[in-house]
Design a protein that fits this description.
- The complex is a heterodimer of chains A (308) and B (427).
- Chain A has 308 residues and is mostly helical.
- Chain A has 15 helices and 2 strands.
- Chain A folds into 2 domains: 47 residues, no CATH class; 241 residues, Orthogonal Bundle (MetI-like fold), CATH 1.10.3720.
- Chain A has a two-stranded antiparallel ribbon with strand order 1-2.
- In chain A, strand 1 and strand 2 form a beta hairpin.
- Chain B is α/β, with parallel strands linked by helices and 427 residues long.
- Helix content of chain B is 45%, strand content 15%.
- Chain B contains 19 helices and 14 strands.
- In chain B, helix 14 runs parallel beside helix 15 and helix 18 packs antiparallel against helix 19.
- Classes of the chains: A mainly alpha (308), B alpha/beta (427).
- Chains A and B meet through helix 2, helix 6 and helix 13 of A and helix 1, helix 3, helix 11 and helix 18 of B.
């Protein structure tokens, strides 16, 4: 009887609605945080981008002034150049590096779990701590990197103390973070159906053919995701540079990246309006970069599309 | 179901808004005071505040932030939020940012009524710095002439070099410095002759008869492209690359994050140029004897150097100004100055206390009184809120090239000074 009556009783809400509501309830802390702590400031910064504001006296509306000034600000162009330089090298190197590591970590070795943990560890290390470690590694006289270069008979550069080598140093350091992307690739690799490889093996495909014709296409949505995220993140590089150059972006502005410049303008020189305008320009650059990637994303293979 | 959702929401909002409201309610009738300082200063300030609370029954909420940009960030955020503190700590350089925006109270009438001390009790130099027109905006706490060259007696003795005396010049600095440098078999420097706490190039410019701007109190143009300034900046670079007595920026990097004062403590440099605030740290040195001497005179016999200093200001927005002034008198008054003097961290702005046994005590350095004489020769940085930006964004990156030996001072300065004048002074 009990069972029967339960069956007859109509559910209060449809199952899917019910789930959706609970979903939002669980999301509430994040949504509220987003609205109050992120959404508000985002809107405020959009307004401030058209104002002059020193934080002490009330903001003054100045129209497009900030944007016009930015266009002729050599520091802005320098910081934009530095940011692009970093992105153009760090992103491809990071993607290739993390795929290679993910492929290695996808083998059935005994200690592979331990190795995966070791590779992932830097991603959960505090940015400031790892920046300090890298300052030691890059030490021109006593650093590990120049020590090994010395063993090979190469006189290592001054790295962070040199105008030419400071950006390459940051790029090398970015490789330290491959573990984070590696995990995502690893999940992607493990989602590739085994039978595809078996079929290819029967057809006599070698390891490179399998990689090129199966692994890479099957992995392409993950690569696409990582590419977009990596570009977004590398445009926003800040912590390492801030720590390693004491907030200066030196030597001689060679590591003055855009976010560091925004920080300086906002919190060192107290020009909130100008800094907000810079931040919105950065947002627009990232937006365009992301849209371009979607536009040219024909190379991405979605298995699901075939089923439709 | 809906009930549950609304309940969850309500609880969340309740907690959220309640926690917002609370912090305001607590501080409403309290006197709010913002400051920075290290451990010893916190103790002094906490004690003074306690005494004030006991005497006046006015509650104080004293908030501290680390010095430099973090402090400014916190204070400015409070201003931006329309909730500025009643009393705040300012120094000779960030002072202008507040003063020119007209947010500080003119303290002159308060000081005139004050019985515990008079304007003339303070060093006129720092009073003058904090005065714009006829209004004094900050009651000085300390003045910090950057005139102190600390020297390691043991390294001087080992090298058979005579200790420097106050009448020494740049020339003597180089001559002595060259005898105090040591290298290992691979040619890596293990000991340097001289290092400044940070690139204190301003003092070199001043003591060569140069200047940063045409008029410190009302700057209209940058004058770093004059001959005297160029020579002085080149001389500081020459200490590194020509005379090789000071570490280059890359040699500093090679110290692996060791600060310049650590170099002095560990005997890696014979002379260290800074202000008197390093004394408490150096008093812990066990391995060698040390003393201080005044920053050397320039080639034309000019003595001048850069300076710091700080004090207390009251905000115009404060609705408890009388109480705020009372607190300031506790902080900057005699009791506070004596406690500060005893730590050795800062030179009290009140002359009688700076000259008293509380500050010039029998602990090392033997010639601590040089800072008393030094006050006469101080030159303040240009009084304009943009100077920080000029320094960080235009001067420092360009000077990096001079310090690294890549370019000559003359070329760099002839390039950047017109730009600075156009970007910051053309208004």
């Amino acid at each position: 009887m009990e069972v029967a009556s339960r069956k007859i009783k109509k559910p209060y809400l449809k199952m899917s609605t019910h789930e959706a509501i609970w979903g939002y309830v669980f999301l509430m802390p994040w949504i509220l945080g987003m609205i109050f702590f992120v959404g508000g400031p985002i809107i405020a910064s959009l307004v401030l981008a058209f104002c002059k504001w020193d934080l002490i006296t009330p903001p003054q509306f100045v129209g497009m002034d900030n944007f016009i000034k930015i266009m002729s600000d050599p520091k802005f162009w320098k910081s934009l150049y530095n940011t692009f330089y970093y992105t153009i090298f760090a992103v491809p190197i990071g993607i290739v590096g993390s795929i290679i590591v993910a492929l290695l970590m996808n083998q059935k070795w005994k200690s592979v779990r331990l190795l995966r943990t070791i590779y992932y560890l830097p991603s959960v290390t505090a940015g400031v701590a790892s920046a300090i470690i890298w300052m030691w590694l890059f030490n021109p006289d006593f650093g590990l990197i120049n020590y090994f270069l010395g063993k090979l008979g190469i006189k290592g550069p001054l790295w962070l103390a040199s105008e030419e080598w400071s950006k390459p140093a940051l790029i090398i350091m970015s490789l330290w973070g491959v573990g984070g992307n590696m995990i995502i690739y690893l999940a992607g690799l493990q989602g590739i159906p085994r039978q595809l490889y078996e079929a290819a093996e029967i057809d006599g495909a070698n390891i490179f053919q399998k990689f090129w014709n199966i692994t890479l296409p099957m992995l392409s949505p993950v690569i696409f995701f990582n590419l977009i995220m990596s570009i977004v993140w590398s445009f926003q590089i800040f912590t390492q540079v801030y720590v390693m150059t004491q907030g200066q972006g030196g030597p001689a502005d060679s590591t003055l990246v855009l976010v560091l410049y925004i920080y300086q303008k906002a919190f060192k020189f107290h020009q909130m309006g100008y800094a907000s305008a810079l931040a919105w320009i950065l947002f627009i650059i990232i937006l365009i970069a992301t849209m371009l990637q979607f536009k040219f994303s024909k190379w991405v293979y979605y298995e699901g599309e075939l089923k439709k | 179901m809906k009930k549950i959702i609304s309940l969850v929401l309500m609880i969340f909002l309740l907690v959220f808004f309640n926690s917002c409201g609370k912090s305001k309610a607590v501080s409403k009738d309290m006197l709010r005071f913002m400051y920075w300082g290290d451990v010893q200063e916190i103790e002094i300030i906490t004690n003074l505040v306690k005494q004030f609370e006991k005497d006046t029954k006015i509650k104080v909420s004293a908030e501290r932030a680390p010095s430099g940009p973090p402090y400014m960030e916190k204070v400015l955020t409070q201003f931006a939020g329309g909730n500025p503190p009643d009393v705040l700590f300012v120094e000779v350089n960030n002072f202008k940012a507040f003063a020119e925006r007209n947010v500080l109270e003119d303290l002159t009438p308060y000081l005139e009524k004050e019985t515990a001390f008079k304007k003339k009790d303070f060093y006129p130099q720092i009073i003058d710095r904090f005065t714009i027109g006829n209004s004094l905006y900050v009651l000085p706490r300390d003045i910090a002439p950057i005139c102190v060259v600390y020297y390691n007696k043991k390294l001087f003795d080992e090298a058979g070099v005579k200790y420097p005396t106050d009448d020494w010049t740049w020339y003597d600095l180089v001559k002595k410095g060259q005898k105090l440098v040591k290298k290992d078999s691979k040619g890596i420097y293990t000991q340097f002759g001289f290092v400044d706490d940070w690139p204190i190039w301003e003092s070199f410019v001043y003591s060569n008869g140069g200047s940063l701007v045409d008029n410190v109190k009302n700057p209209k143009k940058c004058t770093l492209n004059k001959k005297e300034a160029i020579e002085a900046i080149q001389f500081r670079a020459d200490l590194i690359h020509k005379y090789k007595i000071a570490p280059s920026p890359s040699q500093m990097t090679a110290m692996g994050g060791m600060g310049t004062s650590d170099m002095f403590v560990s005997g890696k440099v014979a002379m260290f140029y800074s202000g008197i605030w390093k004394t408490p740290l150096f008093r812990q040195i066990k391995d060698f004897q040390w003393d201080v001497v005044m920053f050397p005179k320039g080639p034309k016999g000019i003595r001048a150097f850069s300076t710091g200093g700080s004090g207390y200001a009251i905000t115009k927005a404060s609705n408890k100004k009388e109480a705020a002034w009372k607190l300031v008198t506790y902080l900057a008054g005699k009791a506070g100055q004596i406690e500060l003097a005893k730590t050795g961290l800062a030179q009290p702005a009140m002359i009688s206390i700076a000259e008293s046994k509380y500050f010039i005590d029998d602990r090392p350095p033997k010639h601590k009184d040089i800072v008393l004489k030094g006050v006469k020769y101080v030159v303040f940085a240009p009084l304009m809120s943009e100077w920080e930006e000029i320094n960080v964004s235009a001067i420092a990156p360009a000077f990096d090239k001079i310090w690294s030996g890549k370019e000559k001072a003359e070329k760099v300065l002839k390039e950047i000074v017109p730009e600075i004048n156009e970007n910051f002074f053309s208004k």
